[in-house]
Write the structure tokens for this entry.
Amino acid sequence: MSDAGPIQLAQPEIGAREEELVLEVLRSGRLSLGPMGQRFERELAAWLGAQDAVAVSSGTTALHLGVRALGWGPGDEVLTSPFSFVASANCLLYEGVRPVFCDVDPETLNLDSSAAAAVVGERTRGILPIHIFGFPAAMPELEALAAANGLGILEDACEALGAVDSEGRAVGSRGNLATFAFYANKQMTTGEGGMIVPTGPESAAGLRSARNQGRAADMGWLEHEGLGFNYRLSDLAAALGVAQVEKLDSLLRRRSGVAELYAQGLAEVEGVRAPIAARGSERRSWFVYTVRLDAGIDRDATIARLAERGIASKAYLPCIHLFPHLRELGYREGQFPVAEAASADSLALPFFPAMSESQVGRVCEELAAAIRSGP
Ligand SMILES: Cc1ncc(COP(=O)(O)O)c(C=O)c1O
């Protein structure tokens, strides 16, 4: 991509190694449930420092299997954040579980543990924290809340592969069920894909059976031990995953480098607040680069002006509780002011490992110009 041309929001890094491993699968004839799938699971688990990991077809299906593994069902309530991608609430709705939204921390935009503590009730069965935009959620506080009230935890780490929490622990390694996602804009990609990491009491064998139509490992193709799904990941996708895990450290380092360039460039731009990279021992794994605009700046007009100048940007994120299917549960504007304010003034800028210094500089200049040229 030329530095003067359009700049897109995200761009995966696919190279010769991905081609080589995909070709290996094609030539092997084992397109599903073959050795490449197992290799991807082993290599991602090793990278995370986890005992095991179960590959699935998406982050959403990983979350759905997590909800079922924790036994959450109709009549149950689970505490979660309204400032997330819709899948983190939908996975509860699939099982008839009510998402009970709580407001977020103004700095990290993650579930506020005091807000969560305030709404624990008789029907509360669990907590579903999201490590939003790759910043680690307040896991020690949420785990204490869970322990005090006998709650399960399902971590939505779909945006946070590589993040480190306030106790210096890798997100996804704490003894809760954790989920990751590999859509093409994520830190690493398999095109579509996800992983569920059972670091707690839930069994990997149970998750493998559930993703494969309820077939236990020792069962034939037409035998089923219970209700299951086809949430398998193909070996072609797993081949991409193996190649991406091999370069994951470098992908993450380069994302951090681009974020640093942005932090420097945006320091000069009035009216724009850059996201934090770290706080104490917490380290963000850079997923998107989302800035907040000061009051009085029209976010949507800014996005339109950037688009006219060839720069993609996106309102990031709409609050989940205001989507029609959650309004049906009684949710309304004004209930979660911190999340709603972030939702109204945030925008995601182009962000991917191959972004050059001059591209970042151009985005910063154009953003400044777009802000100057209007209310
Ligand atoms: C926070 C969060 N949860 C869940 C998902 C769902 O992942 P997928 O799109 O792979 O189903 C995503 C992906 O965009 C996400 O960002």
Summary: The pocket of pyridoxal-5'-phosphate is lined by residues 58-60, 84-85, 87-88, 130, 156, 158-159, 181, 183, 194 (CB under 6 Å).
